[in-house]
Amino acid sequence: MSNSIYTIRNYRPTDFNKYVQLIIEAEKLEPTGRCPSPEVLSENLYRPNYSPEQDLFVVETAGSIVGYVDVAPELLIGRVILNCFIHPDHRRRGLATKLHSYATYRAKELGVKVAHVNIAQDNVAAKSVLSKLGFRFVRRFLQLRLDMAKVRWQDIDRAAWQYRHLQRGEEDKLTQIQNRSLAGTWGYNPNTVEEIIYYTSLANCCPEDVILACDGDKIVGYCWTRISYETATDERKGQIFMLGVSPDYRGRGVGKGVLLAGLSYLKSKGLQVAELTVDSRNQAACALYRSVGFKVRTSSLWYEKAIG
Asked: pLDDT of 166-175, one tens digit each?
């Protein structure tokens, strides 16, 4: 391995199979819980406002792809999110530093102000690398888990609000309530109708996964659910992907009501466990999730570096 010659370059469509193989191997070595199927990875590569040929850099040696850095642009809030992986057999060769320089150059091209990286709390090696690259810790996000059997379903106040599923053609309504309810939230990049259509059309996703809380004809809150697959254990788990309440309706039980409606939907799919991620500084959200029975399982850390 010591004599290997490495090439760092932009991703090409012909790299897809090798890229998939690396992601599958990475998930086995360092499980994240994401699904590394070719279909899911292909969808992710061609999401809105992202170009794999410009925003993804790969490390190639001896005809194999052994590392990559993904530069995910979030231009409305002036940042990129970096996701980097080097196969363990090829670490300690300065490849992460070189990939970071490519990612930084791309970030400057995009005109963003900061780069963010999210890592597991126990990833000591990543903490060391990020520190050397000039990143600083800025935020802790809690990963919560709920045993569905312990939920008090009687707490759903169906008399106060009406609950229904999002329908195809209502993507603009979801965009509006989402951007309004999450405005000013740390790390939230406002969505577009195009992005909502994309995310509700993915494999294993559909508009029905979004539960709306309504006051008459007015949408006042939403709970966006998902189903994830733990590749290591082949376990199906429910996810609360996003939840929001219109600022005009906060403090009136909308959040808890629509959260429980979302959990009820996941339970109807035969799921025993639900998980979510929340900013540890968002005290209102943390209190809401605790009130339903969510417990802290682990946490992830966000690191930041100024660009330019």
From this structure: 999 999 999 9
Q: From edge to edge, which strands make up the β-sheet containing 235-245?
A: 7-10, 56-61, 64-74, 79-86, 114-120, 295-306, 136-147, 273-279, 235-245, 218-230, 210-215, 162-165
Boundary (domain end) residue, out of 112, 130, 161: 112
Domain span holding position 16: 7-112
pLDDT of residue 168: 96
Identify residue 40 by its one-letter amino acid code: V
Query: Contact, 288 vs 276, CB < 8 A?
Result: no
The rounded distance, in Å, linking the Cα atoms of 201 and 196 is 8
Kindly state whether residues 46 and 108 are assigned to the same domain: yes
Distance CA 15, CA 284 (A): 44
* Residue 229 within a domain: yes
**Paired tokens of 97:** 């530093």
pLDDT digits (tens, 9 = 90+) for 70-101: 999 999 999 999 999 999 999 999 999 999 99
DSSP-assigned letter for residue 156: -
CB 70 within 8 A of CB 56: yes
**Same-domain check for residues 70 and 199:** no
**Does residue 191 form part of some domain?**
yes
pTM over 0.90: yes
